[in-house]
Design goal:
With about 400 residues, the chain is of the alpha/beta class. The strands form 4 sheets. A 7-stranded mixed sheet has the order 4-10-9-8-7-5-6, sandwiched between helices. It has a 4-stranded antiparallel sheet with strand order 11-12-15-14. Helix 5 packs across helix 11 (about 265-275). The longest helix has 22 residues, at about 300-320. It has helices at about 5-10, 25-35, 55-65, 80-95, 110-120, 135-145, 165-170, 195-205, 240, 250, 265-275, 285-295, 300-320, 350-360, 370-375, 395-409, and strands at about 15, 20-25, 40, 105-110, 130-135, 150-155, 175-180, 210-215, 240-245, 260-265, 325-330, 335-340, 360, 365, 385-390.
């Protein structure tokens, strides 16, 4: 009997227990639950422990409780016109990309729905989808649900740069999609314009669609000489083969709002809509109202948030290095990756289990964001990397580092 869709989906995200034929919680849920059970500090799941800006939250509350914003009834499936206009204006302001908000912007329930709808729209059954590894686990889930096969190209320490030659070797006439994530979760690598141009060229050669997941676009933390982020849609030729995914959750520190969007050519966005409008149909009118205001004018929040995150990143990276781990400083995002081989011969997965149980610090093994074939290759360096979140208050990071250091010594 063929594997049912629910099992394919779970297996693609490494959350299927074949022995019991049950779906396991995600690695994020498991790490959070373990941290709670052991009275630990959760540096696993990537959410801030500070709320988004007050003026943004006030705007959402105003929309819910007054006539200033939209009603609390169904919103338009593609998103309110003024929300799509705000996304289009934001893309032009930051990247010089001009979009028609009428047919080149699609509202989604967070980036997760945008990713799901895009992959289900273009990953044909029996095809191959190529992604860089490690990858956000929903990629594997949706590729498997679509009946396609996920192939990966690893990002390697210390810089985690995409190997475009390896990507070219991985694609074939069977490739239906190439999945890009820049700034990258969890490595923090920011793909350069030249790298994105090469990816677009490769996709065009084999007739594949590129999905570029850009949710960390406003979490840029690198120095002046670090790569600058730009949407893939700024690359010549990308309009023919690529769509971009964006989200307010990370940019404004409101991850629970689940406000996302897909942008691209009218044809490709229309095809994504063919899936999206039969999933959630519509959500979050009040949140669209607030986010539209934030995209029009972030009131300095992006720069302020970046400065706070940069300080947290440096605090965490220096503390991990002092404890004996090899820490890799990211150019963007929420996470520092650390190689555990300086303090243990265990894999990062085994080390993480002891870390939360004995030291009370939760972290996520990068291997949980890789293919099973990678996990089974004990020589692969990805099996020895832990992901620590620094989007926390500095006193929380300091306490976590003290616990880690005391436990190791």
């Amino acid at each position: 009997m063929p594997t049912p869709p629910w099992a394919r989906s779970a297996a693609g995200a490494n959350t299927y227990d074949a022995a019991t034929a049950t779906v396991l919680p995600t690695i994020y849920e498991r790490t959070t639950a373990a941290a709670i059970a052991h009275g630990g500090i959760n540096l696993g799941q990537g959410f801030p422990d500070a709320e988004g800006p007050q003026w943004l939250r006030d705007a959402a509350a105003e929309a819910i409780s007054t006539d200033a914003g939209p009603t609390n009834q169904y919103s338009p499936g593609p998103g309110f016109p003024w929300f799509r206009e705000a996304v289009a204006a934001h893309q032009e302001k930051f990247y010089g990309v001009q979009l028609d908000p009428q047919d080149q912007v699609l509202h989604t329930t967070g980036a997760t729905e945008a990713i799901a709808a895009t992959i289900l729209a273009f990953a044909t059954a029996g095809s191959e989808v190529v992604a860089f590894e490690p990858f956000y686990d929903s990629y594997g889930s949706m590729v498997a649900l679509a009946g396609a096969e996920l192939k990966t190209v690893p990002l390697r320490a210390p810089d985690f740069r995409p190997d475009c030659a390896a990507l070219r070797a991985a694609v074939s006439e069977r490739t239906s999609m190439i999945l890009v994530n820049t700034p990258h979760n969890p490595t923090g690598a920011v793909f350069t314009g030249d790298e994105l141009a090469e990816i677009v060229s490769i996709a065009a050669e084999v007739g594949a669609v590129v999905m570029s997941d850009e949710v960390y676009e406003h979490l840029m933390l690198g120095e002046a000489d670090a790569p600058a982020h730009s949407t893939i849609l700024s690359i010549p030729g990308a309009e023919d083969v690529a769509v971009a995914v964006g989200s307010a959750g990370k940019s404004f520190s409101v991850t629970g709002w689940k406000v996302g969007w897909v942008t691209g050519s009218p044809q490709l966005v229309n095809q994504v809509r063919g899936v999206k409008q039969f999933t959630t149909f519509c959500t979050g009118g009040a949140y669209q109202y607030a986010v539209a205001q934030g995209l029009q004018d972030d009131r300095g929040f992006f720069v302020q948030n970046q400065a706070e995150l940069r300080a947290g990143r440096d605090l965490l990276a220096e503390g991990l290095a002092a404890a004996g781990l090899q820490a890799f400083t990211p150019d963007a995002g929420y996470f520092v990756l650390a190689d555990v081989r300086g303090v243990t011969e265990q894999t990062a997965s085994a080390f993480a289990a002891e870390l939360v149980a004995q030291a009370g610090v939760g972290a996520i093994p990068v291997s949980s964001l890789t293919l099973l074939s990678t996990q089974e290759n004990h020589e692969d360096e990805l099996n020895y990397l832990l992901r620590f979140a620094f989007c926390k208050r500095h006193d929380v990071l300091t306490r976590a580092l003290t616990r880690l250091s005391d436990w190791l010594t």
